[in-house]
Predict the structure of ABC transporter substrate-binding protein.
Amino acid sequence: MKRWARVSSAAVLVATLLPGTAWAHMKRDESTTIRIAWWGNQEIDNRMLKVIKLFEAKYPNINVQPEYMANKDYWTKMNTEAAGGNLPDVMMMDYAYIRNYVKNNFLVDLTPYTKNGSIHVNDVNPADLQGGKVNGKLYAINIGDNAPAMLYDPQLFKKAGVPVPKPGYTWDDLAKVATQIRNKLGKQGVYGIEPYDNVNMFFPYYLRQRGLTLYNAQGTGLGYKDDSLLANFFAYWQNLIKKGVAAPPSVTQSISDPTDELIVHGKCPFLNVWSNQAVYISEAAGKNLKLLPLPTLPGGKDGLWIKASALWSATTQSKHLDADLKWIDFFTNDLQAQLTFGAEFGIPISQKVQQHLYTRLGPLYRTEYDYIQYVKKHSRPIDPPDPPVASKIRQIFSTIQQAVNYLQTTPEAAAQQFRQQAEVAFRQGS
């Protein structure tokens, strides 16, 4: 099992309804301090702190108190602060959990502030704002577009003498190519692919190709009824492990960071990722890795979707809304700020910013940008935000898939077990 978390993941949210405190407008002649919180790694933190310096230089009457931590710690702290009425003024939000924060009245409706120009979105495609909307109101501004992807190593394909799959390749094609790579380079310790053990991407994608969703529209249960779907999904990966094509858990279980993946060390040609991860994984590998869409289903639907990798929200517990709005607008539209941040959270939503970065950030950014443009033409709208119980569902799925990968259970039994445990989790709630 991979031990590192995707950028877009988060933990359990509080379900207690707390009233938002009133905010006061910032006076122009007074100094204001706002707290801004985000999750990230060391590179993200360093870049964000530089952006804050640019912001404070532009708005000398606003001081920023940064609060940053690892992804695994972020939501625990936000939950605690929400319960104590002490949320930061601006917080980084995740699509999976925005619905629960809105339900508990923690987030400011930003709709009127995009209309009056406090936050400029005039050159933003309306579709890029959808991830921040709940019930038609805008509660968060997308930081960067992201999409499921297959990262691959062109050098390893060349070394094996195997052609790189072209967009439109199928699940069968993926297994065939992975097998060819393993047969050619297996004696050098190269595997054809890594097995999948995370419910955030591949299985929802698999369902979307069949016109289904992981959760129902109400967020009260699973969105598919036929357990053979999950059984077939589990069987696909288990068969590749049995054949020695996919790396076994004994190889992958020690991976604790994306920069330590097999693809980084030239030991696997593929890695399923979120598109914004391509840059820093490529940098860790010391070579330009490329992006492919996920495999297609003949006669199926487009399974891909665009997701905000992260979003900015102003909280109702803030007393400095004017300053909060200035930060969100600055981060979204300032060219120097975006160049400094370097698209760490995906492709920025401002088209002016996109073009500014395209000629300045180099080939890795262009690879990511071009991939997002492809996905926008070959995708369907994102599924509704995950229900509050989703973190439990993810853990259940991961534990069961580990058993599948270790060959400790059959795909059929695993699929039934997942449904049984998921239904219990839904009844118990978050």
About this structure: The domain at 148-305+385-428 is CATH 3.40.190.10 (D-Maltodextrin-Binding Protein; domain 2). The first strand starts at residue 32 and ends at 39. Residues 1-27 have pLDDT under 50 and may be disordered.
